[in-house]
Specification:
Layout (H helix, E strand, L loop, with lengths): L1 H17 L14 E2 L8 E3 L1 H4 L1 H4 L3 H11 L6 E7 L3 E6 L1 H12 L14 E5 L13 H17 L3 E5 L8 H14 L13 H11 L1 H15 L3 H24 L16 H13 L3 E4 L2 E6 L10 E6 L7 H14 L5 E7 L3 H13 L8 E7 L20 H19 L5 H11 L1
Parallel strand pairs: 5-6, 5-10, 10-11
Antiparallel strand pairs: 1-2, 2-4, 3-4, 7-8, 8-9
Helix pairs in contact: 7-8, 7-9, 7-10, 8-9, 9-10, 11-12, 12-13, 14-15
Length: 430
């Protein structure tokens, strides 16, 4: 309705110009505001006062001219002049009721769907394996899921990508430690036991040479597809993701097991990808490592920034994985748009990975790559949480505390709620 009134007033201004009431070169900005007090109607404009100087008339006189020029419609029941020349508009209640009814009867609530639906890959949540989700995971998870739902509502094809940290050299150590725990009759390992799992595994690795040798051997075996190591690795992933799914369900997050696209998915692609970058003269050997030099990230002296895509020992980096990930999302998933929700520290890393992917031709023209950046959750020391160092707040504990406090508030204010409704209110408030 506001736009409709603005269009009417804009047309009146143009008519005044045609009638030479306003100079042809006069610039007039039509402003419509919501009224603070409904006694003054639903919308108001100060247009008459803005026109006082170019028209050389009193605002009240101009306001009368404007009101007389407004066409009669069913939507507006009354237009009146107030104060020094404000014009107030009263919208018909019947019109508002019909609009609300039309919205309620429309499955899209009156929101227009996209004229050209896109395939959008949204990368969000992305917890690591062998540890519980911590409080700082809530941002990527909730923001990402909100955007997923909005874009789906607008008619886009949305592919959820839960890019979990389920690969890397640390898994040799974790597999060896899981084996150790199971041999100690702890086969019913719960995720709560994994809160200190990584740290204890690392202690064993650093203090027990026999354990360290076995762990390094398991890395090689895992990466070679060894059946036993893969079985132990999957156990670690499953223990983690079953518990994470409970958190997702509790928060009404739409992620499920089928949306997992972990780092392991891209592992077979890394060696051919680096070979392709070499063949395209993008990656060059430098001190034994394969490096891509980016002119768009040059330093103040104009020296291109070097980005390692393969270490001298043959290992790959997160950058390599993210390039492969981008390639997969464009070529296999057919993405027109990719949005990655991660904290602001990841920005430069993502920009460089995407720059390499574009230079290599993995990202077709017109595909949009976006970093949905947000701030960091800090500890009492003012530094970002690090789950591997311990001391961070578990997301599960945060949700439990929220429910405890909500229950206390409900108990203070209302003791008459039926038990089932009380539980529903507590969870909703929490």
């Amino acid at each position: 309705m506001k736009q409709k009134i603005q269009d009417i007033l804009t047309e009146i201004v143009e008519q005044f110009k045609k009638n030479n009431l306003i100079p042809q070169d006069a610039t007039v900005r039509v402003m419509i505001e919501n009224t603070k007090d409904k006694k003054n109607g639903d919308y108001a404009t100060n247009l008459a006062m803005l026109l006082a100087k170019p028209m050389k008339k009193k605002p009240q006189e101009i306001a009368s001219l404007i009101v007389d020029s407004i066409p009669v419609t069913d939507e507006i029941t009354k237009v009146e002049i107030a104060g020094p020349g404000f014009i107030n508009f009263f919208v018909s209640k019947n019109y508002l009721a019909s609009q609300v009814e039309a919205i309620l009867n429309d499955e899209h609530l009156g929101v227009k769907t996209a004229a050209k639906p896109e395939t959008v890959v949204i990368d969000y949540s992305s917890p690591n394996v062998a540890k519980e989700m911590a409080v700082h995971h809530i941002r990527s998870t909730v923001i990402g899921d909100a955007v997923v739902r909005i874009l789906e509502f607008l008619g886009h094809k949305v592919i959820r990508a839960n890019h979990i940290g389920d690969w890397g050299t640390q898994f040799g150590m974790l597999i060896a430690y899981l084996e150790k725990k199971e041999n100690e009759n702890a086969s019913n390992l719960e995720l709560s036991d994994l809160e200190a799992f990584y740290r204890e595994a690392k202690k064993c690795y650093e203090s027990d040479e026999e354990f360290a040798v076995r762990a390094r051997g398991y890395v090689v075996k895992l990466q070679s597809g060894d059946e036993y190591c893969l079985k132990m690795w999957k156990k670690l992933v499953n223990i983690t993701m079953v518990q994470n799914q409970e958190i997702y369900d509790r928060l009404n997050i739409s992620l499920t097991e089928k949306d997992i696209m972990g780092e392991s998915l891209y592992n077979p692609m890394l060696k051919p990808l680096v070979e392709d970058l070499v063949n395209k003269n993008l990656a060059v050997k430098d001190d034994g490592a394969m490096v891509v030099y980016l002119k768009n990230f040059a330093d103040k002296d104009g020296n291109p920034r070097g980005v390692i895509v393969q270490k001298k020992d043959g290992g790959f980096l997160y950058t390599t994985t993210d390039i492969a990930c981008t390639k997969y999302r464009c070529e296999t998933l057919g993405a027109n748009r990719i949005i990655c929700f991660a904290d602001s520290r990841q920005h430069e890393h993502l920009m460089m990975s995407w720059e390499i992917a574009r230079l290599a031709g993995y990202v077709p023209d017109g595909v949009v790559l976006e970093h949905g950046a947000f701030g960091m959750m800090l500890g009492k020391d003012g530094k970002p949480f690090k789950t591997r160092d311990g001391g961070t707040v578990k997301l599960k504990d945060l949700l439990n505390e929220a429910e405890t406090r909500a229950a206390e508030l409900i108990a203070q204010r209302n003791n008459d709620l039926p038990e089932d409704l009380r539980e529903q209110v507590i969870k909703t408030v929490a």
